[in-house]
Automatic annotation (TrEMBL):
It comes from Hevea brasiliensis (Para rubber tree). This is Legume lectin domain-containing protein. The chain crosses the membrane at residues 227-251. Keywords: Membrane, Signal, Transmembrane, Transmembrane helix. Residues 1-24 form the signal peptide.
């Protein structure tokens, strides 16, 4: 019996591990993703030096995304800018609103997650989405911080994308800036890989995708595999249920047979006869091997 029980437990365990609900919940929106990445970027700031960028870790479910955090005094940002922070060139004259004494610039590189969170119907990304968002640096363990509004009062910020896919002949690459609500706004690419901005947000280089296989195909593939996972786990679950049912029935039968054997043995030895009620009266009964005792009056018409 111990073996059977552990077998059942093991089957149940395998089934639970199979269920897709086991995976952690991914952020549902750009906004939720920003909040999560702020949290993870801030974790990299353990006794940080002002003006040095620190790379953060992302949760295992979001592998492919890179984050970093840079803590600055507000005055230093305005007077000196940041010559190079990853792909961002921040000129002098950038001010934040509302004013904070120190701020953290959170950098995001969404890598292969770009299309998932910043897909643009009719366009294909040629470079990953990069984000630059400013937050209050007063409390480095704070979460769900509001994004500060940063604005270039002089020259704009420049974004120098590093791995831009080549543009197909006859098509023109565009810079796209997504505001905090995710609304896109297009501008021209400079020097093949540069975009500029006067404020915070997310940036990418895209091309009108009529030249590419429609991205919906990839989407469909993903959806299909999702459907297959669900169908697979439901079928797997049903199969396991049926197996379990058989197991339970088998165990039940085994138990009954054992009981019966015991009873037969007991009857043969002639001790501890089980009493069964037959009609109104009690009579000794030894099942199967003997004919059932019946009351004579039952035969009387
Ligand atoms: C991005 O790539 C990583 C592995 O490099 C993978 O685990 C992850 O699922 C990918 N993300 C998407 C949205 O495809
Ligand atoms: C893409 O380009 C084609 C032709 O150049 C144009 O007809 C179409 O409207 C464009 N699509 C988008 C989404 O801009
Ligand atoms: C920044 O955070 C500190 C401490 O949490 C708070 O006192 C201050 O009001 C915040 N500043 C802004 C502009 O939110
Ligand atoms: C910083 O934020 C954390 C998390 O919200 C909070 O528990 C803590 O009290 C805050 N510290 C200060 C000094 O405001
Ligand atoms: C988008 O860009 C155009 C000019 O390129 C500008 O007129 C418009 O105000 C911008 N939209 C937003 C929401 O900033």
């Amino acid at each position: 019996m111990g073996l059977l029980r552990s077998l059942v437990m093991m089957l149940l365990l395998i089934w639970f591990l199979w269920l897709p609900g086991h995976r952690a919940q991914l952020p549902n929106s750009e906004h939720e993703l920003d909040a999560l990445l702020q949290n993870y970027a801030y974790k990299a700031l353990v006794r940080p030096k002002t003006g040095l960028p620190y790379d953060g870790d992302v949760p295992p479910d979001l592998i492919g995304i890179k984050v970093a955090a840079l803590r600055l005094r507000s005055g230093s940002l305005r007077r000196k800018g940041v010559p190079m922070y990853k792909e961002f060139e921040i000129p002098v004259g950038v001010i934040e609103r509302p004013y904070v004494e120190r701020l953290v610039l959170v950098y995001q590189n969404l890598g292969n997650w770009s299309e998932r969170y910043y897909s643009l119907a009719g366009y294909t990304h040629l470079a990953p989405v990069l984000g630059l968002l400013a937050y209050n640096a007063s409390n480095l363990s704070a979460t769900n911080l509001p994004v500060l509004d940063i604005r270039a009062s002089g020259d704009p910020l420049t974004i120098k994308f590093s791995d831009v896919k080549s543009v197909p002949d006859g098509f023109v690459a565009m810079c796209v800036w997504f505001d905090l609500q995710g609304n896109p706004n297009f501008s021209n690419v400079a020097s093949g890989n540069e975009c500029s901005t006067i404020q915070q947000g997310h940036f990418a280089i895209v091309v009108n995708s009529t030249a590419f296989p429609p991205p919906s195909r990839e989407h469909g593939k993903k959806n299909k595999s999702k459907v297959w996972i669900i169908v697979g786990s439901v079928l797997g679950g049903l199969l396991l249920l049926v197996l379990l049912l058989f197991l339970v029935l088998w165990v039940h039968k085994l138990k009954e047979r054992k009981k019966m054997q015991q009873m037969e043995r007991a009857a043969d030895v002639g001790e501890a006869l089980q009493m069964t009620s037959v009609g109104e009266t009690k009579a000794p009964a030894a099942m199967v091997t003997r004919t059932q005792p019946t009351l004579e009056n039952e035969y009387v018409p």
